[in-house]
Amino acid sequence: MAVMNVTPDSFSDGGQFYAGTSLNLDSILAAVEGALADGATLIDIGGESTRPGASPVSQQEECDRVLPVVEAVAARFDVVISVDTSSPEVMRGAVDLGAGMLNDVRALRRDGALAAAADCGVPVCLMHMQGEPASMQQKPEYRDIVAEVKAFLAERSAACREAGLLDNHILWDPGFGFGKSLSHNLQLFNALPHLAETGYPLLVGVSRKSMLGAVTGRDVDQRMAASVTMAALAAERGAAILRVHDVRETADALAMVAALKKEKDQA
Ligand code: 7PJ
Q: How far apart are CA 40 and CA 62, in angstroms?
């Protein structure tokens, strides 16, 4: 899954598709074309920065950013488009225009989001986050991070089924970096095989995140090796989808993981 942020302020790639404050559609289409050539099979389009400390955007602003991009990408490419949003209006608008998946860092907890997702009828990624982006990294606390994340995702999955979503349209994401210390993130990562046992496909997003900077001491533009390594390890531990910035390098790493698995399965 290739990340396409259509925000002026995302943490690793903010503003890359902007000329001043106006969005440049051609530069986005070129980036999508590149990501597909590099091996992406899903494109995740987001219009709200959820970096630590970010403030929320209005639904109107988010619609204005995201919907023209979804429309243009859907018209031009045969690829599954995921929209990274918590906003029911963006969900409905994007799926109307051809999006095939919803990715919500708030796990459909906003008013109207569960109903919107059920009406959309597409797969949904439920992500765990403690708190809100504006304050989530201030003092994250858990008694048992793995048990709490798992219980949260199970509760949200039950809410989804009650709202009418199909069980096989639900994906889980532990939400690396969202209200978690380095130790919390590492514990969760080590627990991926345990989470995978639940049967929900796992989506993992660690690409360029600060947990990698905390371990390696590298700035955000120097975290590719750590990102690719973690993507390969996540795949080995049962992740089904990797949400990444460095598509080509990650695709090579995943090809190696897949080759090892295939050889083993044949033995
Ligand atoms: C994630 C996400 C993630 C899912 C972002 C960033 C911050 N959606 N949206 N999982 N992260 N499902 O790209 O680092 O980890 S935005």
A: 24
| Ligand 1 nearest atom to the CA of residue 207, by list position | 14
Looking at the DSSP bridge assignments, the partners of residue 244 are: 2
* Residues 43 and 79: beta-carbon distance below 8 Å: yes
- Asked whether 239 lines ligand 1 (CB < 6 A), one says no
**Domains of the chain with CATH codes:** 2-266 (3.20.20.20)
pLDDT in tens, 127-158: 999 999 999 999 999 999 999 999 999 999 99
Residue 245 beta carbon below 6 angstroms from any ligand 1 atom = no
Q: Could you read off the pLDDT of 225-239 as tens digits, one per residue?
A: 999 999 999 999 999
Percentage helix, strand, coil, to 5, in the chain?
Answer: 50, 15, 40
Cα separation, 154 vs 146, in Å, equals 12
50 Cα–ligand 1 center, Å: 8
